[in-house]
Amino acid sequence: MNALSFPNTSSPGVSGSALSLATSAVAVAAPYPAQDAELGSRGMPGEGGLVAAFTCVAESAADIASRDALLDRAMSPNWRRKSSEKIRRGRRPAEGLAFVARDADGSVVGTVRLWNVAIGDEGRSALLLGPLAVAPSLKGAGIGSALMEHAVGEARRLGHGAIVLVGDAPYYARFGFSAEKTGTLAMPGPFEPHRLLALELRPGALTGAGGTLRPSGRKVRVAAGVTAAA
User: Fold this and answer.
1) HSE on the CB side for 47, CA within 13 Å?
2) CB within 8 A of 68, min separation 6: which ones?
3) Coil vs helix vs strand at 29
């Protein structure tokens, strides 16, 4: 397995060229400086000095139960009632854009997924990022930042134009996200407009876009009354 070190995540911006393919494992020994912890989609004060070894890899079907349990611990079961879930429910993540972080024992300690969405009546294509979560015991170890950089880099490599998310601007600004082009966008349910952020992967991808985000990705397969894991 080829190892690749992520850049110091306290620096703004994302370099897609330094990221591995989604199907490749990226080994990260992370003696990161103090930085924000990841608790769901919100940045919280970190605990500096924490060191962790982990890999960012493509999510597999076998990770579903562990990922959901991690989200329950990091965000509480209420994450299933967020407005973003109205877009994700019954859909599969965007092709090649669901990732987990594993610790040295192979346990899932972080997760991030991106979803295909259409914006307003025009139906302009974009991606919705979330949930992003890291095991509470590993907050401050750089796992959330590594997952973000890996996910954004892969979305750019696959040719997507823009990513939208709901989160805290001070945290996500380091990855290039802002509310500059989301004033005319809306979520399908209650949301805080100042927390609706976007990153253009192609310049002008969101120029003139407006309306409510709606799901446009692959639907979850249903066979014999059983819903397949997304």
Assistant:
1) 8
2) none
3) strand
Question: Distance between CA 58 and CA 195 in Å, rounded?
Answer: 27
DSSP structure string for 78-145: GGGGSHHHHHHTTBPPPTT-EEEEEETTS-EEEEEEEEEEEETTTTEEEEEE---EE-GGGTTSSHHH
Alpha-carbon span 20 to 52, nearest angstrom: 19
Question: Coil, helix or strand for 9?
Answer: coil
User: What's the pLDDT at 224?
Assistant: 54
pLDDT-flagged residues of the chain (< 70)? 1-52, 222-230
User: What is the four-CA torsion angle of 72, 75, 80, 83, rounded to 10 degrees?
Assistant: -170
Domains of the chain: 16-219 (3.40.630.30)
Distance (Å, whole) CA 151 – CA 86:
22
Q: What gap in Å lies between CA 67 and CA 225, rounded to an integer?
A: 23
Task: Indicate the pTM of the whole model.
Answer: 0.76
Q: Which two tokens stand for residue 147?
A: 């997952």
**For position 84, what pLDDT does the model report?**
80
Q: How far apart are CA 101 and CA 64, in angstroms?
A: 13
Question: 202-224: per-residue pLDDT in tens?
Answer: 999 999 999 999 999 899 986 55
- pLDDT for the residue 227: 47
